[in-house]
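User: Show me an example of a complex going from sequences to structure tokens.

Assistant: Sure. Here are the input components:
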Amino acid sequence: ETGVTQTPRHLVMGMTNKKSLKCEQHLGHNAMYWYKQSAKKPLELMFVYSLEERVENNSVPSRFSPECPNSSHLFLHLHTLQPEDSALYLCASSQGPLAVEQFFGPGTRLTVL
Amino acid sequence: SQELEQSPQSLIVQEGKNLTINCTSSKTLYGLYWYKQKYGEGLIFLMMLQKGGEEKSHEKITAKLDEKKQQSSLHITASQPSHAGIYLCGAAGTASKLTFGTGTRLQVTL
């Protein structure tokens, strides 16, 4: 595997379900990000991790819970989501939180019923 | 907070035609990035502009940064079907935080 990978690529879940999104980067980077992309809205930064510590949290609802166990892996734990949370969730990584170039994964298309 | 407006929102061009996409910022630009996204997939970094008046090219895609106008333009020469996708501009903020535009959807017809 090369670059940034995300699993699953597609996820359908009910409002009472608990699921997790996984992101893995094979680039040796030390900063990782979660973005949300909804239809007709700008890409929104959700969380930033640098050296496995959260450095940015853009007022994201607590039903989204990130986890960064090491510099290569990033998770987004989901519980009691709402239909408006349906979106494409993108993971990215970079060499340092101040790096200007971020490398994106293919995303997870999430549908909340 | 900084906002980026892209125009047009969508564009359909015939193969071989040239096109331009604009990105205008509500605040001074300290760095401007262009990404391409195929529908439902991740973003691919195209190029980064940092200095006023800077111009960069990659194959048939050229981007310019007009710092005074807080604007950047992306120009594609002799478009091909492979150029189809969503083009996003992003502006650098604090601590690697990128603000993105809403994107321009490009379709290239045969």
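The lines above are the inputs; the final block is the predicted structure for all two components together. Residues 31 and 50 of chain A are 4 Å apart (CA to CA).
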